[in-house]
Write a structure and sequence with these properties.
By secondary structure, the protein is mainly beta. The chain has 6 helices and 59 strands. A hairpin with a 2-residue loop joins strand 4 and strand 5. The chain is elongated, with a radius of gyration of 38 Å.
Length: 827
């Protein structure tokens, strides 16, 4: 990246954090085990006639729809561990460990973007999941530990944990996490949500000898049944039936419009050179294309800063906010700021409103089987590195004008492969869409309820289908917009098994629903602007099925809230001329909006069969209603200074009071002077918004500040400040000295900034006084240059001086201060 020094500092932070937690983890060997729960060796049985229990809620199954059964590489990120060896294969997690080594079922990385199974993205609800069970095979009779953290930095003070006695062989351990915490900072399990969970197979094992450990399964669960510790299966005296594991297949992130497809006609295809046309690759050498994507090697001039620059035209960050990419690299994972480290990527962009790079936070990338597609929603949180250069504008609400992806910050010539890269919008549908889903723990008789809602997951949703039979391969339910308001909808699917177990899942992205196009109302949203009393919304709307005026409904799409209803019955001769519609199609109304960002949308209401039509949306940011304005200039006046500017209060048409201060002295004025530029910038408020204030002040340097006085007493915001120095010395010029024989005619001007009165000018010839003249003659040019001092500041006089003499003139300070040399001439 451009600022490599910042990147180095960030990686050092991570390395230091790991070192601290590693150091104190070794101290666990001195702790006494206090938690000891062993479960009898329950073995799955082929016998069918046993009581059935429903599986207890399990963190991995509920949050990721994937239990920790080690059937796939995603069950354990092997880079998120400190072990001599670690692998996931054959339904087991296998490790070679020494004393204090660990692995993390729930990992987290500080100072980086949270995504996927990172605990900062999906933290643990410790009030729900209070026990941890697992089957582990190891040879030791020592002590193990479970360690947790409520901060991504994994610092000692935000850590806690318990220890437990080990038993040789293949044993089931069932540990209560809500007991007394005795590890690190002794943070209790139930004190807050946890973002990192570590398992230390042995704290008493030798630091030099490696022992083999394998884990069959692990459950972080809620103890709601007698055998809640166990995963689904049939055992000797009971069986555990799996809860549903619902997965919403559509809407999905992959269904959203891709920026590249919208701007260049097709998505990027990194498997062939022609699929990447227009892309520039800097600080790396592209060596080929294939099924693994574009292969490149970090190269000079900045080896640890490869750049993939995309040929974009300006686009909305609010629309295209789903970042997805697939990236692999050679060698092991490391964040060290050295050769072989720097396994982070980042997004870099330029947004409207600033010319500097917006540097994204580190995106930690993993090695080997841990590398998979990374999906990041740039609209959630602030994706900008907080240590990068200001202004840090972020992604949401911005027009993005430049886009770059830095895939690898290894200081060595590391080889990496970029298989895919996309920026997607939320998926959309007109009129209706298919909600598709399946059950990863399907059993015959599974049924589903499907719900939709405009709010966030967890808020009340509307049920659109209930008791839908679920097929083994998956099912679908139609979601029709019908008379619902167009906009963004979240989707929730609830599955129930015949045994009574139920579980829910949400789609990973909302879907934007719009009406079916056709002979529906048409129109335009012309204006959304702040006016006294609220926001003026204006435009036109008509329905071709009628010559009558139609209703227009207004919504705030950021909340889904209705904000107004108006009639499109105002005269719009321009619309009539262009479309042949009736004259009365215009609408104009004022609505109230709270402070903050809003998206105002207008819908024409269909008078017959068909859909209501979205006429348009416009964004507006509502401030707090306090006065706005500016200090445009500060100039010298006799005995002080004069400041001017403009001010208005968007809550009222009345002129705003302005308090102006120069240091401790101040004055009050009203902003009612003509400012046509302000009238053009703020339509509806008129042009009488200018102000000028004069403050008497002696010589010195002052901060000149103006404050707008709110009509409702909500505050007096600073409209601006300017620094100004009042120099007390006279100013002027010795314009000419013309010899006439033995005499010389002198001309010039002088004035004292402290007074509009004429001042004296002293004349010296070769250092000797030759007289004093009053600078009181009319000088129109001086009056124009110094408004407020008048024209009586010219001087002329005739003196006797020998040829070759030096004549100097001095402006005499009216306050008997320092006089000013106006000039000298040889005559």
């Amino acid at each position: 990246m451009t600022n490599s020094r910042t990147g180095e500092a960030r990686r050092r932070v991570r390395i230091r954090t790991v070192a601290v937690t590693t150091g104190w983890a070794l101290l666990l060997g001195f702790l006494v085990p206090v938690v000891s729960t062993f479960v009898p060796d329950a073995v799955p049985s082929a016998d069918a006639a046993v009581p059935v229990e429903v599986e207890a809620p399990d963190f991995a199954s509920e949050v990721h729809q994937d239990p920790w059964d080690y059937s796939n590489a995603a069950d354990q990120n092997t880079d998120a561990a400190r072990a001599q060896s670690i692998s996931v294969s054959g339904g087991k997690l296998s490790l070679g460990v020494r004393g204090g080594d660990w692995f993390t079922p729930v990992p987290s990385v500080s100072g980086a973007v949270s995504y996927g199974r990172d605990g900062t993205a999906e933290s643990i609800d410790t009030s729900r999941y209070t026990r941890l069970s697992f089957r582990m095979d190891q040879p030791s009779s020592g002590t193990g530990a479970i360690v947790w953290f409520n901060c991504g930095e994994q610092a000692e003070q935000c850590g806690g944990g318990i220890t437990f006695p080990l038993r040789p062989g293949n044993q089931v351990y069932d540990l209560a996490l809500d007991k007394t915490s005795i590890v690190a900072g002794k943070v209790p399990w139930t004190s807050s949500r946890m973002v990192n969970l570590r398992v230390v197979p042995s704290v008493t094992q030798s630091l030099t000898q490696t022992m083999s450990v394998s884990v069959d399964w692990m459950r972080l669960y809620s103890p709601t049944t007698a055998h809640a510790a166990f995963p689904p299966g049939v055992y000797d005296t009971y069986s555990v039936e799996a809860l549903p594991r619902p997965v919403v297949d559509s809407p999905s992130i992959a269904e959203g419009r891709d920026l590249a497809a919208d701007q260049r006609g097709s998505s990027y295809d990194f498997t062939r050179a022609s699929g990447t046309s227009g892309i520039r690759v800097l600080n790396a050498q592209v060596t080929g294309y294939g099924t693994s994507g574009m292969t490149a090697v970090n190269a000079p001039p900045v080896v640890n800063d490869p750049e993939v620059v995309f040929p974009v035209t300006p686009f909305s960050g609010d629309k295209y906010h789903h970042l997805s990419f697939e990236l692999e690299y050679d060698g092991p994972f490391s964040l060290a700021d050295s050769v072989g480290g720097g396994k982070v990527a980042r997004l870099i962009w330029i947004a409207n409103g600033a010319s500097n790079f917006q540097e994204g936070e580190d995106i930690v990338t993993y090695s080997g089987a841990n590398a998979r597609r990374i999906d990041i929603d740039l609209s959630k949180g602030d994706p900008v590195d907080p240590t990068s250069s200001a202004p840090r504008l972020g992604w949401s609400g911005r027009t993005v004008e430049f886009l770059r992806f830095d895939p690898n910050e290894d200081r060595g010539r590391n080889t990496w492969r970029l298989k895919s890269f996309a920026l997607r919008a939320d998926p959309t549908a007109q009129g209706s869409t298919q909600v598709r889903f399946h059950d990863d723990a399907w059993v015959p008789g599974t049924v589903a309820d499907v719900k939709v809602g405009r709010g966030a997951p967890g808020t009340p949703f509307e049920t659109i289908a209930t008791n839908v039979p679920v097929a083994q391969g998956g099912s679908a339910v139609t979601f029709a917009l019908d008379q619902r308001a167009p906009g963004s909808y979240n989707v929730e699917v609830v599955l129930r098994h015949p045994s009574g177990g139920g579980a829910l899942a949400f789609a990973k992205t909302p879907i934007v629903m719009t009406p079916t196009p056709g002979n529906d109302p048409k129109g335009a949203l012309d204006t959304v602007r702040r006016v006294p009393g609220g926001v003026e919304v204006a435009g036109w709307a008509r329905d071709a099925d009628t010559q009558d005026s139609i209703d227009v409904h207004l919504y705030d799409s950021t909340t889904g809230r209705a904000i107004g209803v108006t009639k499109a019955d105002g005269a719009r001769p321009d619309v009539r001329a262009a479309t042949g519609a009736q004259l009365g199609t215009g609408f104009r109304t004022t609505v109230a909006l709270s402070p903050g960002r809003h998206s105002v949308c207008a819908y024409g209401i269909n008078v017959r069969g068909g859909q209501n039509a979205l006429i348009g949306c416009q964004d507006i940011v509502m401030d707090d209603g306090l006065p706005v304005g500016s200090v445009d200039s500060v100039v010298r006046t006799p005995g002080g200074l004069s400041a001017s500017g403009w001010a208005l209060d968007r809550d009222t048409l009345d002129p705003v009071g302005v308090h102006v201060y120069a240091g401790a002295a101040g004055t009050q004025v009203v902003a009612d002077g003509t400012r046509s530029d302000v009238g053009r910038a703020y339509p509806g408020y008129g042009s009488a918004r200018g102000w000028t204030a004069t403050v008497a002040r002696p010589a010195g340097t002052y901060q000149v500040c103006a404050y707008g006085i709110d009509d409702a007493g909500k505050g007096s915001p600073n409209l601006g400040c300017r620094s100004y120095t009042l120099d007390p010395r006279p100013v002027g010029s010795f314009d000419s000295a013309v010899r006439q024989g033995a005499t010389v005619d002198l001309r010039g001007w002088a004035l004292d900034p402290d007074t509009a009165d004429s001042v004296d000018v002293a004349v010296y010839v070769d250092g000797r006084g030759a007289g004093v003249v009053r600078a009181g003659a009319t000088r129109g040019d001086i009056a124009r240059a110094y408004p407020g001092w008048g024209a009586a500041h010219g001087f002329s006089t005739t003196i006797t001086a020998a040829p070759g003499s030096t004549v100097c003139t001095y402006g005499i300070d009216s306050s008997k201060g320092e006089n000013t040399t106006l000039g000298c001439r040889v005559v």
